[in-house]
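User: Assemble these into one structure.

Assistant: Restating your components, then the assembled model:
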Amino acid sequence: MRNKDINWETRVKGITKLLAVWSGAWTASMALATFGPRFFWDFNETLTIISIILNVTLGIGMIFANKNFIKELDELQKKIQMDAMAIALGVAVVFGLSFSLLEQSHVISFKAEISHLVILIGLTYLTATIIGRRKYS
Amino acid sequence: MNNRLKVLRAERDWTQADLANYLEVSRQTVNAIEKGKFDPSLPLAFKFSRLFNLTIEEIFQDEEYSNTEHD
């Protein structure tokens, strides 16, 4: 069956599922690359490199899956995503750098990790998407 | 922007979901356009036009222009 012949809603559902699969696989590979060296292969360099290559490969797949997902959305859904991305990017730059400054100037005692920034971006993106959806409902 | 989508839809006994399905957009998008919360792009406005067999101006009216005309 040609792609165009499939109902738009079904197509979006399929592409969303695909994105979820790629994201899940990438997250699992990230966990493997993070905890594998310590718990599974005793810091074997070859296995560590393989796990990182696998993580990057799945990450690239996830990027393209996300691109295809955005491409398939309708114009209002694209706008909601675009607005959420703009807010998430802005928050990441502003608060990420401020957080780093707090660490450099020893105002905070703990280390500013990249994972903190990823969590901040994720939560901001999620919140902005929910607000956007409510705004147009 | 004002529009006559609700009336046009009712005349044809279509639900928002039916219209969304014909236009290949989500029901939320049809609802937002119908309520005037979101203005469609020109390609989507043409899709509405073809579907209802009406001109774009017969479906959508510029709010500012309509107000000026009535003054």
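Residues 1-72 of chain A form one domain.
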